[in-house]
Design brief:
binds copper (II) ion, Immunoglobulin-like, 11 strands, alpha/beta
């Protein structure tokens, strides 16, 4: 957000403006892509801020390399074509030049490698988790478990078009959003019940596979209350496009209240990991579409 490329500024500025002019109502607390958006989504966590900054750094470096190579080629085409330079030079070696064109790419790679590795280690895991969320990928919905809250567990299933309320985005809204507190280090454990899925929430900088037979770990710390949308990002079968992720981030106080309500609400789910009857019916309906 702080360090966007200039083209992103211009494009997102224009499209944000048109969005405000034409939509009429602000979607300040909704973190998802908007029509014709060119840049990234508004980052909602430190990880996302750093990932987007790394992207911007790489884009500057890539642009400089492309421009340099293009200018060199234009120079060669003009200066050394058969007409302008009828007697070609017989030079085959230039030690100084060879040292430079070996050393400069190495320096560029080091410049990229250092911040990249720092970023990789930063987003890998949190040293001080304050709570844990277990995410289970299923064909084709997500289950969320709160091991710190007596194993509170529920399924999160896409809302069909006739179930959407005003303002709820199509293909991104679910019946039970996963609720997380803001300004909290949340350790996220990812598992799968069947095939490989991918838990991806762009505005939080989250994108990690859920793999059968192993547990993947990542983490987040959400900056602001709001709704953060994502979707499964690994082709996982016929309804791969219909298992969105909806994260509702709330204050720590609201989270504590929600946990107590959720324990009551989802108590009738029965054995942990079992699918509630309503879920089975809904999935059958989605598949039959
Ligand atoms: Cu999936």
């Amino acid at each position: 957000m702080k360090k966007h490329i200039i083209s992103s500024w211009i494009f997102s500025g224009v499209f944000a403006l048109s969005g405000i002019l034409f939509s009429g109502n602000a979607i300040a607390e909704e973190y998802r892509s908007s029509p014709w958006q060119m840049g990234f989504q508004t980052p909602g966590s430190e990880s996302a801020v750093r990932i987007f900054a790394c992207h911007d750094l790489l884009l500057y470096i890539e642009t400089a390399i492309v421009v340099l190579v293009l200018l060199l080629m234009v120079y060669i085409v003009i200066k050394f074509n058969a007409k302008a330079n009828p007697v070609p030079s017989k030079t085959t070696h230039n030690t100084m030049l060879e040292v430079v064109w070996t050393a400069v790419p190495i320096l560029i790679l080091i410049t990229i490698a250092i911040p990249s590795l720092k970023l990789l280690y930063f987003i890998d895991k949190t040293e001080e988790p304050e709570m844990t969320l277990k995410v289970t990928g299923n064909q084709w919905y997500w289950s969320y478990t709160y091991p710190d809250q007596d194993g509170l567990e529920f399924d999160s299933i896409i809302l069909e078009e006739d179930e959407l309320e005003a303002g709820q985005p199509r293909l991104l809204s679910v019946d039970n959003p996963v609720v997380l507190p803001v300004n909290t280090n949340v350790r996220i454990l990812l598992v799968s019940n069947d095939v490989i899925h991918n838990f991806a929430v762009p505005s939080l900088g989250l994108k990690l596979d859920t793999t059968p037979g192993r547990t993947n770990e990542t983490w987040t710390n959400i900056d602001k209350p709001g709704t953060y949308y994502g979707m499964c990002s690994e082709l996982c079968g016929v309804n791969h496009g219909f298992m969105p992720i909806q994260v509702r981030a709330v204050s720590k106080e609201d989270y504590a209240v929600w946990v107590e309500q959720a324990k009551q609400e989802f108590a009738q789910n029965g054995e942990p990991g079992s699918l509630p009857a309503s879920g089975t019916v809904k999935i059958a309906a989605v598949i039959s579409q």
